[in-house]
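[#protein-structures] MJ: dropping Aminoglycoside phosphotransferase domain-containing protein here for a structure pass
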Amino acid sequence: MSSLIKFVKDDDGDSVYTFPCWIHSDIMDDNILTQRSLTDAKSTGDRDLEKLDAVNIIDFSDLSIGDPLCDLIPLHLDVFRGDIDLLREYLRSYQLPFLRGKSNNDIYKSVGNSKFSTASYRAMCYCMLHEDNVLAAIFGLWKDLRAATSWEEVEHLVWDGLNRYQQSSPTLSS
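AK: finished. structure tokens for Aminoglycoside phosphotransferase domain-containing protein:
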């Protein structure tokens, strides 16, 4: 995914993305080519699990320009099936500078301390505005959210891991 995002170095020498950038717009499990891993398969007791390695992303027919956070939504919901541990590992492994607002001072100043500066809020907004029924996927994965009394409750359960990633980033220092 990092090959789709144009990274530059900011004044502190940290890698940041320039906003907006190319986004795939359709990273779903059927658009990720995999191959059998060279490492050993794992046994779960009742069956052996083959480890697959992602080797390429295909189908760029929906390629567009936008916030790279948009590509994280289908990854988390479709590929990771909402597993927060997989999302955390993905973010840790790739170290993508999502929401590193200082990479574009005009945007950073405009969102400053507003809700829009938090990763979870932006992700939830993108879910609501998405042309596919992303909210149905969310409520399908987290059935207990059907009783949620606010969008903020949904936002925090599904996307709060992004806030922790955003806050742990060394590029976010004031």
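MJ: nice. The chain has one domain: 2-32+65-172.
AK: one more thing. Residues 41 and 50 are 5 Å apart (CA to CA).
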